[in-house]
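Retro notes (design track)

What went well: tokenization of the new backbones is finally stable.
What didn't: we kept losing track of which sequence belonged to which structure.
Fix going forward: every design gets posted as structure first, then sequence, in one message. First example under the new rule, 304 residues:
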């Protein structure tokens, strides 16, 4: 399974085009993969044909297979690596190798403008494990001893450098602090008592600074798995008083089988209208043939 030469040629020829201001943009999002990505996922993407593909990290435990696969995809891709992508390697060599394979598809602490479809994606701190602000030995080996204020500055500067006519999405491995301190909240710690807010401090600070200068419709992240460690389901979507939406895409495991024995693949899905407003957000479970088997609509709110 894979992409035909014609499809690759078409994707290549479109790289310089700008999207129409009236065109809706469909984005597929893969939460924490944890090695669950194969040729059938690539074939599913080919069938669904989203305008872009976002990946929130934890591809595996530092192995190069999935970064190579993502680099082969002919559609626009933006990715930020997660804490598991360091592969328990304090030297940073595994992390560095994956960054090399992903190239400019990896947008940690940087900007990636996807043209088409016409979306600006800014990556937050790479390989974060949440819990405020801390850098692993692997991240320090690759990026240096980046302090909190420098991390905030990098995220903010990348966002302000983005084309102001494009809708802005922040792509992070862990979400920001401030979304709640209960275990079931989008970034709530569920694996240890007492529960607490396990979001990233630098991301929250950057969001506040960015919104003083431009609109921020959407923040996408993972890390905090939907199934809670002590049972129950996590709240995976929030919208604050200023209209910014927060989507936790970390459905893990993302491969499954339903009661009828049908293989399932999870993708989160976002639709932006031409003005850059978020029109729809959902979790979707597809069959291998591309049939949408189940959908959890997160936005807009369902009518009573």
């Amino acid at each position: 399974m894979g992409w035909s030469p014609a499809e690759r040629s078409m994707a290549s020829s479109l790289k310089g085009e700008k999207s129409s201001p009236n065109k809706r943009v469909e984005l597929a999002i893969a939460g924490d993969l944890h090695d669950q990505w194969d040729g059938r996922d690539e074939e599913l993407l080919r069938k669904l044909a989203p305008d872009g593909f976002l990946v929130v990290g934890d591809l595996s435990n530092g192995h190069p297979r999935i970064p190579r696969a993502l680099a082969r995809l002919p559609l626009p891709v933006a990715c930020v690596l997660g804490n598991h992508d360091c592969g328990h390697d304090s030297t940073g060599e595994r992390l560095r190798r994956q960054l090399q394979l992903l190239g400019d598809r990896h947008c940690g602490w940087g900007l990636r403008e996807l043209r088409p479809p016409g979306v600006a994606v800014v990556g937050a701190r790479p390989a974060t494990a949440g819990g405020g602000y801390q850098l692993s030995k692997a991240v320090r080996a690759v990026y240096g001893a980046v302090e909190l204020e420098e991390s905030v500055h990098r995220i903010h500067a990348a966002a302000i450098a983005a084309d102001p006519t494009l809708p802005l999405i922040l792509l992070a491995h862990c979400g920001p602090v401030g979304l709640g301190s209960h275990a079931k909240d989008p970034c709530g710690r569920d694996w240890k008592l007492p529960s607490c807010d396990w979001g990233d401090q630098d991301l929250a600070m950057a969001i506040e600074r960015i919104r003083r200068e431009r609109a921020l419709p959407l923040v996408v992240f993972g890390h905090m798995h939907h199934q809670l460690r002590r049972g129950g389901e996590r709240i995976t979507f929030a919208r604050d008083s200023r209209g910014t939406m927060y989507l936790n895409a970390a459905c893990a495991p993302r491969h499954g089988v339903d009661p009828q024995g049908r293989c399932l693949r999870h993708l989160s899905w976002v639709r932006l209208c031409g003005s850059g407003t978020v029109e729809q957000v959902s979790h979707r479970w597809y069959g291998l043939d591309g049939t949408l088997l189940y959908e959890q609509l997160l936005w807009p709110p369902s009518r009573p």
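Added context from the reviewer: The longest strand covers residues 263-272.
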